[in-house]
Amino acid sequence: MKKRLLGAFALLVIGAAVLPLVFDGAGYRERHLESRIPPGPDTAEWVDVEPTSRELPDTRMPAEPAGAPVVSVPVEPVQEVVERAKPDIEPTEDTPQLDQENVPVAWTLQLASFRDEANAKALRTELLDAGYKVYIRHISGLVKVFVGPELQRTRLESLQAALKEEYSLDGIVVRFTTQ
User: Strand pairing of 134-139 and 142-150?
Assistant: First the structure.
């Protein structure tokens, strides 16, 4: 064991003396490569620019009032204006009501049910383009297309007849919910 330790120590001392002689860097030559980087652009000279803004007018004194604007309004017969302003709600036929929680009872027309969402979206786009209030909902694996909501059920029933005639779709009037 002593001989092994003594041999290892001797090798370390010899290595410490010989290694600096071998790795002194005498054989190292620095390589000089040509640069392929193009020269930088010339720097632009700074130019002083004089501001060309105009002087603002003096606003300490109030301006003279302008004359009253003249607007031409087309005059329509009063009877036509009154006819257009009539509300669509018939309070004597179907009065909007509140439920037990004082929430207005609204109705909607379930127009169609599809398994494929693309078909439902196509019908929705077609009805939106025609000017109807349309939305779709995902309910139990189906995509349902609804028109509405309306506060009066009679409006939806007349709309149901019009949509059946125009699109050949039978719909059912159901209570509108936000879920």
Answer: antiparallel
CA distance readout (Å), 92 to 89, 104, 153: 9, 17, 13
Q: Say whether 168 sits in a helix, a strand or coil.
A: coil
Distance CA 113, CA 127 (A): 15
Contact 112, 164 (CB under 8 A): no
Distances (CA, A) of 49 to 42, 46, 52: 21, 9, 9
Q: What pLDDT is stored for residue 58 in this prediction?
A: 81
**Starting at the edge strand that comes first in sequence, how are the strands of the sheet with 172-175 ordered?**
134-139, 142-150, 107-114, 172-175
**Does residue 149 have a cis bond before it (omega within 30 degrees)?**
yes
Taking the whole predicted model, whether its pTM rises above 0.85 is answered as no
**Within 10 A of 154 (CB to CB), how many other CB atoms are there?**
14
